[in-house]
Amino acid sequence: MANKLPKVPVVIVGMGWVGGIIAAELTKAGISVVGLERGKSRSTQDYYHVHDELRYASRYELMQDLSKETVTFRNTEKMRALPMRSYGSFLMGDGVGGAGVHWNGQSYRFLPYDFEIYTKTAERYGKNKIPQDMTIRDWGVTYDQLEPYFVKYEQMAGISGPAELPEHLGKMSKPFPTPPMKTTPAMKLFTDAATKLGLHPYIIPSANLSQDYTNPDGIERAVCQYCGFCERFGCEYGAKADPVVTVLPVAQKSGKFELRTYCNVTEIMHDGKKATGVKYVNTLTGQESVQPADVVVLAGYVFTNVRLLLMSKLGQPYDPKTQKGAVGRNYAYQTNGAGSSVYYEDREFNLAMGAGSLGSCLDDYNGDNFDHGDLKFLHGANIRFTQTGLRPIQYQPAPADGPRWGQAFKQATLHNANRILGISGQGASMPNRYHYLDLDPEYKDSLGLPLIRMTFDFLDHDRELVKFIASKTKEIADQMGGTKTTVNDTIKQYNIVPYQSTHNTGGTIMGADPDTSVVNSYLQMWDAENVFICGASNFPHNGGYNPTSTVGALAYRVAEGIEKYMNKGGSLV
């Protein structure tokens, strides 16, 4: 029998960036919060002297255990979905801090175009430019409305960035709180080449600190050491912003926050109109508990948020045949694969040193910053050179037509290790009526509950985008003075392997229409006013950027919304 606990004002499911930000903001306002995390607790001390590539990068120490819960995948409804049994396409975090612990730190604001993509596309090109099955829509909030929340996120995280960004990226009411990271020789080559082509490169905004920093909450963090152990690792210096070293300490010091680890939430309890709390299982003891609450916040990863709604029968599941329902619709990913490599026979670079968001980029071909009139795709890509720190186990730059083992292979990798610079495009992913998330009818997790099922594939417009962006990366690469350049300009069918991006979006999308969205602009659920859902699952499409800054901004906005709701009740829009 489930153990029923005393009622609390707010319960948050998931203690990553979203859960941490909301917990910090609500407890500062004097509101008591319980945070539930299915993984273990963490602190910076856990990462001291553990630059262990095999343990973390290859064996996924920080990731969700796929033997207990995973995702099933298919390209189309005609295929049978199969479980992802080993990590490949994306990496799902686990434990306090979630994916906010093992991220790289690249911190972009989505473009003004992204938030009003349907309106702005139709105004410039006409509605016929939008393919019939491409379900793009405005987000229900504009860039200008969200801009103050971007500032809150950047000041909290200590984002390091240029004093000014190109004007086509949207106005900033306040500059980044710390200067940009160092410019390496390789970054300078990229920047000089792009500038010669009339483009507008800039240093990537970074959650890896360029200098010591104290944020508005009094949290002190140290400067980045450029050790090259960011993605898939926790930062032993605390230089990379993550929930464990920024927002969670604020909540914990308030005296209003209770963190419960090893608590796997399995159901949102509700009466058909409002949530009454959540049910969870202690993963160590198997004890089931019910936590009543006035407000329930879903702050998990994309798949977690959608799966909980579907398992709880809260909201109407999306049906791709009728396009009715909203829970699970508009799943999107990232259209990667476009890129060029520059090889230098007579020059070497120190590519082992770096940081997760050390690099330069440009957005001349992102969003609608260029004319799409004669192109067969919408949106675009951020083009970048990054120097994230290339480690020896996973980086083996031997020629594809050469030997793959033995002495000759080792000699080739040693020779090439510091001679190849890669330029890549991170492309936007547009939603499609047949791309969605639902519950798998066959496969279950270790608790006997259905797994989430993903239906997704790359389409013609993705292939056209990759071909176009690849040609632009080659133009830059050719200007960088290498011995030779190579280009990749094709993608085929999407597969769950190899690793591509952890930027999954959609499934609980925001919008102004309750029939086609799950939450309003304050991320308050249309079907249950005391349920707030926040994360990349709110994105109606995925842009040409890493999603974290936009997720962080939304988290600050939803925290404000929850406080308003607790004071007044009712719908916030």
UniProtKB/TrEMBL annotation:
The lineage of its organism: Bacteria, Bacillati, Bacillota, Bacilli, Bacillales. One of its GO terms (molecular function) is oxidoreductase activity, acting on CH-OH group of donors. Belongs to the GMC oxidoreductase family. SUPFAM superfamilies: FAD-linked reductases, C-terminal domain, FAD/NAD(P)-binding domain. Keywords: FAD, Flavoprotein, Oxidoreductase. The keyword Oxidoreductase applies. The keyword Flavoprotein applies. This is Gluconate 2-dehydrogenase alpha chain. Residues 439-555 form the Glucose-methanol-choline oxidoreductase C-terminal domain.
